[in-house]
Specification:
Number of strands: 3
Strand content: 5-15%
Protein name: GrdX family protein
Structural class: alpha+beta
Number of helices: 4
Radius of gyration: 14 Å
Largest sheet: 3 strands, mixed
Organism: Bariatricus massiliensis
InterPro entries: GrdX-like
Number of domains: 1
Oligomer: single chain
Shape: globular
Distance between the termini: 11 Å
Strand order of the largest sheet: 2-1-3
Helix content: 40-55%
Length: about 130
């Protein structure tokens, strides 16, 4: 295991990475997942991936996965600024997550899983 954990609301991320990595899964909205990450940052965890990575706008997809340091390291101002900005950005978009067919949700799960999977090799160096 690397020095990171995955915070997610995506069951596919939990299934794909949960046996090899520390994955914290909760059934939360996109914005509530970011708020959970924010609370962890205030507890001293460091953000290892940008909270709005990818080209899918907040509230268009219901799924979000973020890499965090596995242990608290002290309050990181850069992480705090990034997460607060991401949460504010969520407020600028209309929630469209309930407007899609089920196959679209599968696509959103896959996009989120692919994005976080591509970040893992870099995080393993931490």
């Amino acid at each position: 295991m690397g020095g990171f954990m995955i915070i997610t609301n995506n069951t596919l991320v939990k299934e794909k990475f949960g046996t090899d990595y520390h994955v914290e899964y909760e059934e939360l909205s996109f914005e509530d997942t970011l708020k959970k990450v924010r609370d962890m940052i205030y507890d001293g965890y460091k953000l290892l991936t940008h909270p709005l990575s990818g080209s899918v706008k907040p509230k268009e997809t219901p799924y979000k996965s973020v890499l965090m340091s596995e242990k608290p390291e002290g309050l990181d101002m850069q992480s705090m600024k990034l997460i607060e900005s991401a949460i504010q950005a969520c407020g600028k978009f209309q929630d469209r997550t309930g407007q899609y067919d089920s196959d679209v949700y599968e696509d959103f799960r896959l996009i989120d899983c692919t994005l976080i999977g591509s970040a893992i090799p870099s995080a393993e160096c931490w």
